[in-house]
């Protein structure tokens, strides 16, 4: 489990296509404190550490994960939002995030509003009903509050701090974004389906 509070910006160092995709990710984390098999959210995708070095970790990514996320867009030099798994007693500053991406949203519009940037995303039809104004979503692993919803489109306001400590300062119209809907919204909708 994660909180959606990004704690490092990593960089894809290498991508190796073997049966699965192996990625080496450069990090400023103290890798001596990372165990083999640990989970790290990489731009919202929960991945398992399979190799470690002084300033990097390796992850294997299945074809299923590549097909359901924006991992297929990764290239060497791509920066990623990183978060280590939540530990008992850690502050829950965002919301409960599983790292299981539900689908890919697209950036369809961006407007600067003062020092902040309002970004409009288009969710896949099947996920749009789970997104509510003032509700939470995880986008590329970042816990965010939805401002407004219009059909499949929804808006998020990015403050300067968020843009400076995550990859959100680099976003552009047309970017594909990992979307994880709020777990509570998922269960509420499932219960309504049964009612």
Automatic annotation (TrEMBL):
Q: Which reaction does it catalyse?
A: 2 6,7-dimethyl-8-(1-D-ribityl)lumazine + H(+) = 5-amino-6-(D-ribitylamino)uracil + riboflavin
Lumazine-binding domain ranges (all copies)? 1-95, 96-192
Q: Where are the Lumazine-binding repeats?
A: 1-95, 96-192
Question: Does the keyword section mention Oxidoreductase?
Answer: no
Q: Name one GO biological process term.
A: riboflavin biosynthetic process
Establish whether keyword NAD is in the entry: no
Q: Which GO terms describe its molecular function?
A: riboflavin synthase activity
Which CDD domains does the UniProt entry name for this protein?
Answer: Riboflavin_synthase_like (cd00402)
Q: What is its EC number?
A: 2.5.1.9
* Catalytic EC class: transferase
> Pathway involvement?
Cofactor biosynthesis; riboflavin biosynthesis; riboflavin from 2-hydroxy-3-oxobutyl phosphate and 5-amino-6-(D-ribitylamino)uracil: step 2/2
Its keywords, alphabetically, are: Repeat, Riboflavin biosynthesis, Transferase
Entry-linked InterPro entries = ATP_synth_asu-like_sf, Lumazine-bd, Lumazine-bd_dom, Riboflavin_synthase-like_b-brl
Its annotated function is as follows: Catalyzes the dismutation of two molecules of 6,7-dimethyl-8-ribityllumazine, resulting in the formation of riboflavin and 5-amino-6-(D-ribitylamino)uracil.
**Assembly with partners or alone:** Homotrimer.
Q: What NCBIfam families does the database record attribute to this sequence?
A: PRK09289.1, PRK13020.1, ribE
Give the protein's recorded name. Answer: Riboflavin synthase
The source organism is Antarctobacter heliothermus
């Amino acid at each position: 489990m994660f909180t959606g509070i990004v704690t490092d910006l990593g960089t894809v160092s290498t991508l190796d296509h073997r049966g699965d995709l192996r990625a080496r990710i450069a990090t400023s984390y103290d890798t001596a404190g990372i165990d083999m098999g640990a989970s790290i959210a990489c731009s919202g995708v929960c991945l398992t550490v399979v190799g470690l070095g002084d300033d990097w970790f390796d992850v294997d990514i299945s074809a299923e994960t590549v097909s359901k996320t924006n991992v297929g867009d990764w290239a060497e030099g791509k920066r990623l939002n990183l978060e280590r798994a939540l530990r008992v007693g850690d502050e829950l500053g965002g919301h409960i995030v599983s790292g299981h991406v539900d689908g890919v949203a697209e950036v369809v519009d961006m407007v600067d509003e003062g020092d902040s940037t309002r970004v409009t995303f288009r969710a896949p039809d099947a996920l749009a009903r789970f997104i509510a104004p003032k509700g939470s979503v995880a986008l590329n692993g970042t816990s965010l509050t939805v401002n407004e919803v219009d059909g499949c489109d929804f808006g998020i306001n990015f403050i300067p701090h968020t843009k400076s400590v995550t990859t959100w300062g680099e976003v552009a119209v047309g970017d594909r974004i990992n979307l994880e809907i709020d777990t509570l919204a998922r269960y509420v909708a499932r219960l309504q389906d049964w009612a």
